[in-house]
Amino acid sequence: CEVDATEAREILSKAPNLVILDKPDEALYPMPSTCVDKNETFVGRIRNDLYDKTIVHMFVVADNLRVGAATNAVRIAKKWIEMEA
Fold it and tell me: What is the dihedral angle through the alpha carbons of 25, 48, 14, 40, rounded to the nearest 10 degrees?
């Protein structure tokens, strides 16, 4: 099915712990230095593929120690507790 970058951006903007930085006219997009010591994941450069309408490209960065390990473990534990209650 076809995917639209604008629609993907809107959906992603509602996701918890995710920050959209996607304003190329202002040179505002995620860079690895953006996410150091932060618990959020940053997404930008959201674009439709030039040749395949079922593909959307995006650049995603996060502090891997915080989001990929410690913070993610805490989020999973909280969700598990929430589901058990």
Answer: -70
- Look at residue 26 in the predicted model and tell me its pLDDT: 93
Q: Is 29 helix (H, G, I), strand (E, B) or coil?
A: coil
pTM of the model: 0.78
Nearest CA to 9 among 71, 17, 18? 18
Which tokens in the block code for residue 26?
């202002």
The sheet carrying 56-61 orders its strands as 18-20, 41-48, 56-61
Q: What is the residue whose two structure tokens read 């996701």? A: 15
Helix (H, G, I), strand (E, B) or coil at 38: coil
